[in-house]
Design brief:
26% strand; 10 helices; 276 residues; five-stranded parallel beta sheet; Hypothetical Protein, Haloacid Dehalogenase-like Hydrolase, Chain: A, domain 2; Rossmann fold
Length: 276
């Protein structure tokens, strides 16, 4: 039996300092070296995830942007991607414009992954998002909205207070063409509204990766409500102790927290190393 182990990053494998402890890195790398099929699924981009996951051995593709992309972490090559149709992207942009939103727009522009935004309209949450990622070559500040929605768009993010985003969430979460999440940033007051193509989810990406990698079972680890679909398609699923109650309610079990190396300790004790 080949088991695919998939963990979320923020709040799950990453501790409260947004780091993977040396213990977790050494433990997981040792298990991977012995044959464990291990990867991560995150709302982050590969660029952002690679920074916080530096030193972690991932020999199989990783899942980024909440499932919109499956990527080879060594080469950055996209194995699978889900984008909006032109009509879907146009509708989203229209709604955001009508509501005065200032989104981050993720797209492939002339074949290059870019994050576009209108400079000078950033709120505190967006400024922090950009500041902690200084030097990120994906960033594409624009003078106005003329080219904001250019390219093959696969992700929209709005960062603001919950009250500012609630109306948008209600619009897109009730539209069958989209998958929309609204959740608070870890350790921060602002909320993230994320709009994706309907089929973009960690769950769908994991099912694809399971097939590509010829695995028979999936065991997953998470902490937040956006991990619920991933848990629902897993054979076993474990919430870290710091997870939200909604996730714990649908978990196989609750393990030690992200600050206690819960994922690594569980894998060391219960993970299967056999590849065949």
């Amino acid at each position: 039996m080949r088991t695919l182990y998939v963990t979320d990053l923020d709040g799950t494998l990453l501790n409260s300092n947004d780091q993977i402890s040396q213990y977790s890195i050494e433990t997981i790398n040792g298990l991977v070296a012995k044959g464990m099929q291990f990867t991560y699924a995150t709302a982050r981009s590969l660029v952002s995830a690679s920074v916080v996951a530096k030193g972690l051995s991932t020999t199989i593709p990783v899942i980024a942007y909440n499932g919109a992309l499956i990527i080879n972490p060594d080469t950055g090559g996209v194995i699978s991607s889900l984008s909006f149709t032109e009509e879907e992207a146009s509708y989203v942009s229209g709604v955001l414009r009508e509501n005065g939103a200032n989104p981050l727009v993720y797209a492939y522009v002339e074949g290059v992954e870019r994050v576009s935004y209108v400079a000078g309209r950033e709120n505190e949450g967006i400024r922090r998002y950009l500041d902690v990622r200084k030097g990120d070559r994906r960033f594409r500040p624009l003078e106005d909205e003329t080219c904001l929605y250019q390219g093959d768009i696969f992700y929209f993010t709005c960062i603001a207070d919950r009250e500012e985003l609630q109306g948008l969430y209600e619009i897109f979460s009730e539209d069958e063409r989209y998958r929309c999440t609204l959740q608070q940033e870890l350790y921060r007051p602002e909320y993230f509204l994320e709009i994706m193509p309907k089929k973009a989810s960690k769950a769908e990406a994991i099912k694809s990766l399971k097939e590509i990698w010829h695995c028979d079972r999936v065991v997953s680890f998470g902490d937040a409500v956006n991990d619920i679909p991933m848990f629902e398609i897993s054979d076993e699923c474990y919430a870290v102790a710091n997870a939200v109650p909604e996730l714990k309610a649908c978990a196989t079990g609750v393990i030690a927290s992200n600050d206690e190396d819960g994922v690594a300790k569980w894998l060391l004790q219960y993970g299967r190393l056999s590849c065949g």
